[in-house]
Amino acid sequence: MPNIMQERGERFNNENVRANFATFLGAAGTFDRFCFIAPVDGRVTGAYLVTDTTVTANDTNYWTFQISNGATGTMVADATDVAGGTLTADTPRLMVAAVLTASRNFSAGDELRFTGTETATAEDLVAAYLGVTIMWVPR
């Protein structure tokens, strides 16, 4: 049965990543880890972010999250500043995809990274769990 989320009739593929922040948060409140190794050439079509801890929107104390490919830069991103809004516990949130399709392309063997950066003193996520679902299609 085909996945109900489709782009131009192609089947979405989903990669799920779940991690405990405490295992990879640095002293400065940042993390940067591989989250997906591409089996074939493809394009990221979106990503969902969910955590078990609410992060309140704040323009001074906030988190920025992104999925990137060293070859093409940021593919999808999200932030908990006022413009990005509150990240509500246990509620999946669609991350913002790069406007240019080429920015979301990857090649077989590319390693995509998930990065989180804390600005000032955002909510403590050391004991939080994080889930990321990357949606992609072959190209």
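the 2nd protein, sequnce then structure:
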Amino acid sequence: MTRRIYRGTDIEVSFDGDLCIHATECVRGLPAVFDRERRPWVFADNATAEEVSAVIERCPSGALQYRRLDGAPNEPTGPVTTITAGAWGTAARARVGPSVNCRAQRMAVV
């Protein structure tokens, strides 16, 4: 699936269904903005840009991302998490930077 864009007045939300793990952080966090029964399912103007960005930053997979249109800072990029394949298919996670950021677009498999 390609990344879909949902543009609001002050924030633009993008979604990649292939990355989504259905943790429902978005739906539980802002049901007026994220409603899987509605089409389009994202309506960014149903909350403030601050509220929308805060919920998107809780998305564990990185399926949701945002771009601020109101001049406020865009989504911060955190440290990269590196996953290394170990013996018998186990994985070890190495921290890079002060904290581990598990959002998928910031992971590197080595």
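Confidence is low (pLDDT under 50) at residues 93-102, 104-110. The two ends are 25 Å apart (CA to CA).
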